[in-house]
Amino acid sequence: MRRFSVFPRSCAVTIFGCSPVSSEQLELFDEVLRRAQNSDLKGRASLRKAIKRRKPDVYNAFMRDASNRGSISLMEEAVACMRRDSVQENAWTAAVRINAYSRVGRIEEAQAVLKEADSFDIGPIGNAAIAPLVRGLMEPRFTAATTLDDEKPVARIQGALQLVHKRLSDTSVEFASFRTINTLLRGCKRWSPHLAASLLESFHRPEGHHPSTLALAVECACATLNTARAVDLLHELSAQGASADAALLTEVTTAHALCGELPEASAMLTRALDAVAAIEIDNYHSDRKMEAAATSPLKRRGIPQGLLKNQHALLARYLQKGGFGDVKNGQGVQSSHFVSYPAHDAQNDNNRMDSGQEHLQALVQRSQRVCVEVGAGSGDWLIAQAVAHPHVAWVAVEPQLDRVHQIVSKVALNHLSNVHVCATSVEAVFGGDDQRHGSKPTQGWLPKHSVDEVHVRFPYPPSLELPDLLAPTLPMNCGMLSSGNFLDGTLRVLKPRGTLHVVTSEPAYCALMLASLRQHPVAFGELVSTQGQAGFSREPPQKPPTCSQSMQQKDRKTKELSFFDAALIAGGHMERYELNYLRI
């Protein structure tokens, strides 16, 4: 292991004010900058065409494409050109701008665009503008940027619901579309699943709700283990001619199993297995696949079949044993002592909060090794590690309740006792000793110097443009896990000789982490790369696995694929960047 040293040859390539200190870093920085420059050049060429034509629709189409690429600066430059050349802005212009700001978490600017559209009577402002703003208000990555008075999850949902009813009511130009309602339901699923039923009732639809809306409502019912409502919604879904997909049936099966409704769980598992078998048959008959897609209006994001089959095998073993999980019907994960919640989420149930904290502290104290995964998602990787290493304490940090439900469900189905879930932000769990701004240390849920390993796998990459990369310091929108606060907390909880592991598929995020580590005044001296002077390792893209390789992957225990592992490998563009650092 070696510390960073000065790169032997002069090089003008810098990212976030950092120069490469090895040939590997030079190659990485050059690739990141080249991609950003190509994107910027293409964007500016398109902008010149829009300026030449001077038509609102052309400008709007350009700004939509720029927003999809995360090029907010080009979008703002296009708005300035429209106003300079007196090109008339319309409702689509406002919607595109609101969407662009909302998707990168600049909520205040999105709200300012909405007020601006009202003041200049640019309308009608409908679902195209309101839905992305609602999504931004309830997006977990952006909650700190919202302007709601109360940052409690319920308040965020209620604030977004009030916005929709105010803007898309009976007296408005448009009703709330199913996509807007789905956005609200996703917020409920993430933060307060028990609110989904009342939210759905507030949008009366004589013809019935869209199948995708009903599917989201089923997921919310499963998160609270309200199996009766989940089954009723499945019947309503079938009445509309839509078939529940294998993932949805698997969720209902899990809810039945955890409630002790074993006959119902067995019947639902059979339906889920039949759905997976039908998918495999359709993969060999493209005409049948197209016909099925045309007759069923339910279209949802897929889950890798390997993960579904693993869940089916787990459910089958659980049903054979007839075991019961640590959850209660009607409450879901909120009743589990395997979960700790922030104070404002548990204020009406102090016993639940105390039980969770007591389990966390007891688990840490009795375990010789403690490992933490930040942003555990659905918990596939962490649960596989916990099964393979039963004497190690595994702590999942995941604020979204739908993902917390998935993790705790797998804990119960596997009869694990070495896992705990912290349903809050990493700052609350780690705390921190921020020595950069002279602020007082914050006390986290985990004791100081109590963690052996911190894992961050496939964090959501921030939107970085060429000006961000060329800036002399880290950008403000660098993301929570790339900020100094995260490194402060990591240094607080890591033991001496403890390790930090980061895995990403984005080269720009790898460069961002390298810059964050080098610019942090404490981490630069106390965290040493185990990968030599490069500071990271890189695995080239892999080909999609064959059927035999997929079967072999099922037998891998200590290196179980996570959702992102499986999805990216299946797509054939799995390029991994790993950063491993040891605290000295």
Beta content: 5-15%
Mean pLDDT metric: 83
As a whole number of angstroms, the C-alpha radius of gyration is 25 Å
Count of DSSP strands: 9
Low-confidence stretches: 1-11, 144-150, 287-297, 328-332, 434-438, 544-559
Biggest sheet record: 9 strands, mixed
- Write down the CATH class of the largest domain: Alpha Beta
Q: State the CATH superfamily name of the largest domain.
A: Vaccinia Virus protein VP39
Count of structural domains: 3
Give the CATH architecture of the largest domain: 3-Layer(aba) Sandwich
The computed structural class is alpha/beta
Gross morphology is globular
Portion of residues in helices? 40-55%
The CATH topology of the largest domain, please?
Answer: Rossmann fold
Number of distinct helices: 25
Distance between the termini: 11 Å
Give me a quick take on this structure.
This protein is an alpha/beta fold. The protein is about 55% helix and about 10% strand.
Write up this protein.
The protein has 584 residues and is of the alpha/beta class. The protein has three domains: 54-210, Serine Threonine Protein Phosphatase 5, Tetratricopeptide repeat; 226-326; 335-583, Rossmann fold (3-Layer(aba) Sandwich), CATH 3.40.50.150. The chain is 53% helix and 9% strand. The protein contains 25 helices and nine strands. Strands 1, 2, 3, 4, 5, 6, 7, 8 and 9 form a nine-stranded mixed sheet that branches. Helix 18 links the parallel strand 3 (392-397) and strand 4 (419-422). Helix 2 (56-68) packs parallel to helix 4 (91-103). The longest helix has 31 residues, at 23-53. The N and C termini lie close together (11 Å).
